[in-house]
Amino acid sequence: ELPPKVKNILLLDSEGKRVAAKYYTDDWPTNTAKQAFERTVFTKTQKTNARTEVEVIALENNIIVYKFVQDLHFFVTGGEEENELILASVLEGLFDAVNLLLRGNVDKREALDNLDLIFLCFDEIIDGGIVLETDANVIAAKAGINSADPNAPLSEQTISQAFATAREHFARSLLK
Amino acid sequence: MAQPLVKKDDDHDDELEYSPFMGIEKGAVLQEARVFNDPQLDPRKCSQVITKLLYLLNQGESFTKVEATEVFFSVTKLFQSKDTGLRRMVYLIIKELSPSADEVIIVTSSLMKDMNSKIDMYRANAIRVLCRIIDGTLLTQIERYLKQAIVDKNPVVSSAALVSGLHMLKTNPEIVKRWSNEVQEAVQSRAALVQFHALALLHQIRQNDRLAVSKLVGTLTRGAVRSPLAQCLLIRYTSQIIRDMGNHSQSGERPFYDFLESCLRHKAEMVILEAARAITELDGVTSRELTPAITVLQLFLSSPKPVLRFAAVRTLNKVAMTHPMAVTNCNIDMESLISDQNRSIATLAITTLLKTGNESSVERLMKQITNFMSDIADEFKIVVVEAIRSLCLKFPLKYRSLMNFLSNILREEGGFEYKRAIVDSIVTIIRDIPDAKENGLLHLCEFIEDCEFTYLSTQILHFLGIEGPNTSDPSKYIRYIYNRVHLENATVRAAAVCTLAKFGFMVEALKPRITVLLKRCIYDSDDEVRDRATLFLSVLANDGLVDTDKDSKEFLFGSLEAPLVNLETSLKNYEPSEEAFDVDSVPKEVKSQPLADKKSKGKKPTGLGAPPPAPVSGFDAYERLLSSIPEFASFGKLFKSSPPVELTEAETEYSVNVVKHIFESHIVFQYNCTNTVPEQLLERVNVIVDASEAEEFSELSSKPLNSLPYDSPGQAFVAFEKPEGVSAVGKFSNTLTFIVKEVDQNTGEAEDDGVEDEYQLEDLEVVASDYMVNVGVSNFRNAWENMDPENELVDEYGLGPRESLAEAVKAVIETLGMQSCEGTETVASNARSHTCLLSGLYIGNVKVLVKAQFGMDSTKEIVMKLAVRADDPSVSDAIHAIVSCG
């Protein structure tokens, strides 16, 4: 097949543990296989500096582009024939959208507190391996259901406000 | 059950790691999911529970069928809520739960309602969810809405429908194909991503209609495609069309090349890369076509972005394999990448340079690599070592500096895999470049002086035992070997004893000294070492324990006929009794390996480390196998074994391939048979060979295979006699005969009675190149001049019109079965003439050298001038005969 394909998106913490991950192919059929892959990717990239520019590594017939911020490691994987700049544009779309959604406070704690937004963000970037959107503003708007977005519905109150309060409650309620 | 954690406040510095999901437990969350059934829905609470469910699934937790169904049903209740945030989460969890067909019914009406909602976000997501979960019948019901959605003015909705179409094309192609008018309209969309998705779908719909694809691409390459992603797609489609067209229009411009070339000036880097890559991958790309692509890639090499540098160096690395000359312009930029922070980039740069480097730059390059090696990981070092090995085989004259490099890195720190790669490379170089042998063996000797890996030490000692005695001064190795007896562990000591014995046996002059050394070993603290020493002393003294020289040789250099696993099993089963253990009772058949094991063997190790693979292959293994069969033992030294030739189609009941073993005046066909029918056991498997079309051959003997169980390969043999030293050719037809027995699948036992049956195999041909071994020479010019010019035989041949010179060169190398020397198998693209140097060993151990000069005229007609020099003039004749008859 010719259209560019993304095999998975990974968001790992500074110890390589999965914060969120989405796989679009059967290359890693079991959770054990997925975890093993995540472990390899994490250890092979751990020592590199991917904080200013998107970095890239070839691993097990895959091309993986990655970028780190605070204690979060973002990865996008494609096949070895894939155009790595397309993968990089997906990664940057994801990275910047998460940055917008978390209002610049991108770390593991914020990500876990707003995991719903992270999941929605993944959902808006890739659909079944196909690139759905790479523009961070559009992704963030769709995932955050931001009222600033003309596509967002108008309801009784501004949704973004509602979400802001929901987020605050969210963390605590999960702690109970 | 784990107690949920202590309540914490916002103390970031707390040691205990904070997570809102700490102590989360599936059972509890499923309980919480009951809030979905509340008559008064709390959207916020429901969203949180869905997030928890998604979290569990995302962490790899799985729900049972019952649990998933229960969650799914309660989730469907949430459609009552008007809260958009919650609805968004509902869509997400339905996709994750992937409900079964009968459950889907419950949500379809809700989703269809959302599909027609005024809220764009609802429409887009409802389409994506529906298309993910429904089947063909339901799809026809919503088809109308999907077609509308494709041309929806909101790009998000349009993209959702198009992407869903792409997914559904796999399951319901006939339905999706009906949407091509709408998709066609969407291709014109002003929204970048819609255009991309529409183009992808339209192409997929029409992919079997070449004309339509060609028209589509033709139109779009002229117009302005807005999205870089769509432009990348268009480039991919274009290269596919170019590929499909083949070389129909040989003269003049390649169609669509202009388009690819114009994309090199696109403002988006991803498009530039895509186009550059497409150009480098064109079939038979010319240097003129390559140049602009190489130029943009060269610019990328010095980009501050690692991804761009990586993309460029990766592409150039590939180009270097086929067009090394085209990449040499980038060598300066490439050299600066050797110190790149990103080690993937650095390694690719190094290996590219190794490919493009010419003979004169080898030394300088090695100097740079030496600095680079110390700070990269072992896995990258292995890639470099492998590149150096091929460089050495390409420039045999440079073996000294390359061998020195290898021996230097061998002395440095490194893990086992890395060390093994180096040792393997040295071994390969020793084998292929005779001049490098003595030097290489000494390097290996020095390495084992201080080697921490028992495995490598024993392997090297074994290799020394085989190669060492045939060198000009075998005595110089003795010190290194005997040192092992003093300094190493018992395993290595025992291996050293064997090696000493081999020297003693092969080199008469050393025998007395070796005997003295071995006598010292009989006081070793380890019993295995003592036993071996005693045994070999007896062999060397020829004191009657072993009868003849030949037996001693067989004993020292031969190998165990039975697989080690079988020996181990037999020994375990042996019960101590009056009767001694009989080695001959060990079954010799190789048992099939467990499946998992087979998979892991995907990449076969080479060189020293290669374990004996199940159906034996490789010259040494063949030699051992054949000499262990009494019927063939008298045939003398094996001259050549061909690669296996398949005699059956893939996926037939019985799969058979054949290896041709050539001896001085015999030929043995080794039929490797595999039974792929689990319900059958084959016995007395034999191959009946009809040699009526191979007059010079007469059948001598055959060795049937007694039993061929399912999936456990075995070998049958048939031997022929042929006139000595003559390269007799002919065609053989083969029939597999056997007795087939039914196997009970439950007990695994075969019935007693069998039925005779036969199975027709494909014909087999023995051709002239079967009598040629491709042995390289290190210095072709010297070798050529050292041969008597009197015996040179020159003739000219027309090779007819060909696609390219490269193809003609390849065909000639294949027909002759000779080794190309000094990299002359590579033809510069666009070259009009080329000289290829070949060397080989012809049956009777006659050294043959060939200079083949090729020329091509404007009509692609190719002529070849073939000059052959051989020690025996009749062989030169034979080579010409191969060409003129082939």
TrEMBL record, chain A:
<keyword id="KW-0653">Protein transport</keyword>
<protein>
    <recommendedName>
        <fullName>Coatomer subunit zeta</fullName>
    </recommendedName>
</protein>
<dbReference type="GO" id="GO:0006886">
    <property type="term" value="P:intracellular protein transport"/>
</dbReference>
<comment type="subunit">
    <text>Oligomeric complex that consists of at least the alpha, beta, beta', gamma, delta, epsilon and zeta subunits.</text>
</comment>
<dbReference type="GO" id="GO:0006890">
    <property type="term" value="P:retrograde vesicle-mediated transport, Golgi to endoplasmic reticulum"/>
</dbReference>
<keyword id="KW-0472">Membrane</keyword>
<feature type="domain" description="AP complex mu/sigma subunit">
    <location>
        <begin position="6"/>
        <end position="141"/>
    </location>
</feature>
<comment type="similarity">
    <text>Belongs to the adaptor complexes small subunit family.</text>
</comment>
<keyword id="KW-0333">Golgi apparatus</keyword>
<dbReference type="GO" id="GO:0030126">
    <property type="term" value="C:COPI vesicle coat"/>
</dbReference>
<dbReference type="InterPro" id="IPR039652">
    <property type="entry name" value="Coatomer_zeta"/>
</dbReference>
<comment type="function">
    <text>The coatomer is a cytosolic protein complex that binds to dilysine motifs and reversibly associates with Golgi non-clathrin-coated vesicles, which further mediate biosynthetic protein transport from the ER, via the Golgi up to the trans Golgi network. Coatomer complex is required for budding from Golgi membranes, and is essential for the retrograde Golgi-to-ER transport of dilysine-tagged proteins. The zeta subunit may be involved in regulating the coat assembly and, hence, the rate of biosynthetic protein transport due to its association-dissociation properties with the coatomer complex.</text>
</comment>
<keyword id="KW-0813">Transport</keyword>
<dbReference type="GO" id="GO:0006891">
    <property type="term" value="P:intra-Golgi vesicle-mediated transport"/>
</dbReference>
<keyword id="KW-0963">Cytoplasm</keyword>
<keyword id="KW-0931">ER-Golgi transport</keyword>
<keyword id="KW-0968">Cytoplasmic vesicle</keyword>
<dbReference type="Pfam" id="PF01217">
    <property type="entry name" value="Clat_adaptor_s"/>
</dbReference>
<dbReference type="InterPro" id="IPR022775">
    <property type="entry name" value="AP_mu_sigma_su"/>
</dbReference>
<dbReference type="GO" id="GO:0000139">
    <property type="term" value="C:Golgi membrane"/>
</dbReference>
<dbReference type="InterPro" id="IPR011012">
    <property type="entry name" value="Longin-like_dom_sf"/>
</dbReference>
From TrEMBL, chain B:
<keyword id="KW-0813">Transport</keyword>
<dbReference type="GO" id="GO:0009306">
    <property type="term" value="P:protein secretion"/>
</dbReference>
<keyword id="KW-0963">Cytoplasm</keyword>
<dbReference type="InterPro" id="IPR009028">
    <property type="entry name" value="Coatomer/calthrin_app_sub_C"/>
</dbReference>
<keyword id="KW-0333">Golgi apparatus</keyword>
<keyword id="KW-0931">ER-Golgi transport</keyword>
<comment type="similarity">
    <text>Belongs to the COPG family.</text>
</comment>
<dbReference type="InterPro" id="IPR002553">
    <property type="entry name" value="Clathrin/coatomer_adapt-like_N"/>
</dbReference>
<dbReference type="GO" id="GO:0005793">
    <property type="term" value="C:endoplasmic reticulum-Golgi intermediate compartment"/>
</dbReference>
<dbReference type="GO" id="GO:0030126">
    <property type="term" value="C:COPI vesicle coat"/>
</dbReference>
<dbReference type="GO" id="GO:0006888">
    <property type="term" value="P:endoplasmic reticulum to Golgi vesicle-mediated transport"/>
</dbReference>
<feature type="domain" description="Clathrin/coatomer adaptor adaptin-like N-terminal">
    <location>
        <begin position="27"/>
        <end position="541"/>
    </location>
</feature>
<dbReference type="InterPro" id="IPR012295">
    <property type="entry name" value="TBP_dom_sf"/>
</dbReference>
<keyword id="KW-0968">Cytoplasmic vesicle</keyword>
<dbReference type="Pfam" id="PF08752">
    <property type="entry name" value="COP-gamma_platf"/>
</dbReference>
<protein>
    <recommendedName>
        <fullName>Coatomer subunit gamma</fullName>
    </recommendedName>
</protein>
<dbReference type="InterPro" id="IPR032154">
    <property type="entry name" value="Coatomer_g_Cpla"/>
</dbReference>
<feature type="compositionally biased region" description="Basic and acidic residues">
    <location>
        <begin position="585"/>
        <end position="599"/>
    </location>
</feature>
<dbReference type="InterPro" id="IPR013041">
    <property type="entry name" value="Clathrin_app_Ig-like_sf"/>
</dbReference>
<dbReference type="InterPro" id="IPR011989">
    <property type="entry name" value="ARM-like"/>
</dbReference>
<dbReference type="GO" id="GO:0006886">
    <property type="term" value="P:intracellular protein transport"/>
</dbReference>
<keyword id="KW-0472">Membrane</keyword>
